[in-house]
TrEMBL record:
EC number(s) given by UniProt: 5.4.99.-
Gene3D superfamilies per record: Pseudouridine synthase (3.30.2350.10), RNA-binding S4 domain (3.10.290.10)
Organism: Pseudofrankia asymbiotica
Keyword annotations from UniProtKB, A to Z: Isomerase, RNA-binding
Domain Pseudouridine synthase RsuA/RluA-like: 93-247
Protein's name in the database: Pseudouridine synthase
Annotated ranges, domain RNA-binding S4: 19-60
Function: Responsible for synthesis of pseudouridine from uracil.
Keyword Oxidoreductase attached: no
EC primary class: isomerase
Length: 312
């Protein structure tokens, strides 16, 4: 089994009526825990629909699966304080943080920098034990170079409820992004599948047959060389905003990996992409009330924005 291998096949008739996680475990030789995590992470579709782990499968239904990589050495989140990480909200079920630049959501093989999970452990917070060992409690992620609001589950109930909410797209995720040039139209939707870049390791691209990916954007302010966009994600693929804007030929300013102009980035003093997760809204797992958390632009992005205004 290769890392990230995609498989498309019908459900065998002999598995008709089984729970989806049980059927996956039987078909691919996985544990029920791994199979359930695949469903929760949106790596499985049945007849083109996003299912739940307890849904019953029908013999002959068409199954699309992204298989996990073979298990490797355990990666643990070392408790490490992170300067600049702010706690926006904390209760029995969730903790919401304002993540600074240069911090990953969770540990990963080959990554030695700070993580949100390690910072929470160092501060004495306990999170849900659900999910793979290296990212327990993590229900969504932000790139290392992307700042902003990120929620972590503390209770097992919250983990299950929030993973379902992200899977069913009831979470409202909004970003501020500065894109090069002026998108045409000024408001629109990018509906283009995303998968790993065929030639550039570590990057992603719009690829035929990739995972369905939908990004909505609206121009909030236009400058001579760039535009400030308000972006809402309908799906949550890795690097989704960066990939979709690059596909429009309007990459995030400062995002050199996806084709941004290094000269403009230098003029603005940017060392990373201008992208900030400024608002996160969802139904609280405890009582279903709608909660919203926000974060202001961090200093480096705010300074770049002022320079853009001065240049216009």
């Amino acid at each position: 089994m290769r890392a990230g291998e995609r498989r498309s096949l019908p459900v065998p008739d002999g598995l008709d009526g089984l729970r989806l996680d049980a059927a996956l475990a039987r078909m691919f030789g996985l544990s029920r825990t791994v199979a359930a995590a695949m469903v929760d992470d949106g790596q499985v579709s049945v007849d083109g629909q996003v299912p739940g782990r307890s849904d019953r499968v029908r013999g002959g239904a068409w199954l699309d699966v992204e298989l996990p990589p073979p298990p490797g050495p355990a990666v643990e989140a070392a408790p490490t304080p992170v300067e600049g990480l702010t706690i926006l909200h904390d209760d029995d079920d969730i903790i919401v943080v304002d993540k600074p630049v240069g911090v990953a959501a969770h540990p990963a093989p080959g990554y030695v920098g700070p993580t949100v999970i390690g910072a929470l452990a160092a501060a004495g917070y306990r999170v849900s034990t659900s999910g793979p060992a290296e990212r327990q409690g993590v229900v969504h992620r932000l790139d290392v170079g992307t700042t902003g609001v990120m929620a972590v589950a503390k209770s097992e109930h919250a983990y299950t409820a929030l993973k379902r909410a992200f899977r069913e797209r009831t979470v409202d995720k909004r970003y501020r992004a500065v894109a090069q040039g002026h998108p045409d139209p000024l408001r629109g939707t990018i509906d283009a599948p995303i998968d790993r870049h065929p030639r550039k390791p570590g990057l992603f691209a719009v690829v035929a047959g990739g995972k369905p990916s939908i990004t909505h954007y609206d121009t909030d302010e236009a400058f001579r060389a760039a535009s400030l966009l308000i972006v809402r994600l309908e799906t949550g693929r890795t690097h989704q905003i960066r990939v979709h804007l690059a596909a429009l030929r309007h990459p995030c300013v400062g995002d050199l990996a996806y084709g941004a102009d290094p000269t403009l980035a230098e003029k603005l003093g940017l060392r990373r992409q201008w992208l900030h997760a400024f608002e996160l809204s969802f139904e609280h797992p405890a009582d279903g009330r709608r909660v919203t958390f926000t974060s202001p632009d961090p200093p480096d992005l705010a300074e770049a924005l002022e320079r853009l205004r001065a240049m216009s």
